[in-house]
Amino acid sequence: MTVQKLASRNKVDLYLFDPDATDLTDVAWVDMQDYDSILIGFEKTAGTSAVVFKIIANTESDGSGTDVVLATSTSDPAAVADEAFLEVNQQMIAAAGSGYRYVSAQISVATDTDEGAVVYIRGISKNPQKDLTVDAIA
Q1: pLDDT digit string (tens) for the chain, length 138 residues
Q2: 133 and 2 in contact (C-beta within 8 Å)?
Q3: Does residue 3 form part of some domain?
Q4: Has residue 135 been placed in a domain?
Q5: How far apart are CA 84 and CA 127, in angstroms?
Q6: Is 48 within 8 Å of 78 (Cβ atoms)?
Q7: Helix H or strand E segment including 5
Q8: What is the pTM of this model?
Q9: Which of 38, 44, 72, 96 is most buried, with most CB under 10 Å away?
Q10: CA 49, 103, 113: angle at the middle one, nearest 5?
């Protein structure tokens, strides 16, 4: 038996965060048009430097428009295995202005050798369907 209750209502994506830089870096732009909310988590996997962690919105799918900060973490996941989470919903995205529908985590580390893992969970799909979340094997 295959259970599809969570996978039909939520889209989960995992990303490696290894920017080899200390600048604020956009992790991945995702479309929020069909979702009510997004929870983004960051876990430090290498290093011990300070972390800046935000969720930003943009009108362009590649982030080339003007960024608006929707949420900023007050936690500092500086040690390996430290985690921080941020969540925003459609009302917060709409409050950014007309046309804002794409969001990304934006992260920086103080040492360019630091790394992390990022999870995006887009929730409560307006169009539930089988296999919103699927395996990705290279």
Answers
A1: 566 677 778 889 999 999 999 999 999 999 999 999 999 999 999 999 899 999 999 999 999 999 999 999 999 898 999 999 999 999 999 999 999 999 999 999 999 999 999 999 999 777 766 666 666 666
A2: no
A3: no
A4: no
A5: 29
A6: yes
A7: helix 5-9
A8: 0.89
A9: 38
A10: 20
Its domain, for residue 70, covers: 8-125
Residue 14 falls inside a structural domain: yes
Say if 136 falls within a structural domain.
no
Q: What CATH number does the domain containing 118 carry?
A: 2.60.120.380
Number of domains the chain is built from = 1
Buried b (16+ CB within 10 A) or exposed e, 77-107: beeeebebbbebbbebbeebeeebbbbbbbb
DSSP 80-121: TT-EEEEEEEHHHHHHT-TT--EEEEEEEESSTT-EEEEEEE
